[in-house]
Amino acid sequence: MRQPPQKGARERPPKRPAERDPEPILVPQSTRRPVSRLRKRVQQVLRVGKRTCVYLGFGLVALWLACAALRPVLLDHDEVTDIRHLTQEVSAAEQYNEKLRRRIHTLQTRQGIEVEARKAGWTHPDEILIQTSETPPPPPAQAPAEKPKAPPLGAVRREDGLFDRALDLASRALHHRRPPEP
Question: CA-based angle 17:18:22, to the nearest 5?
Answer without folding.
Answer: 110
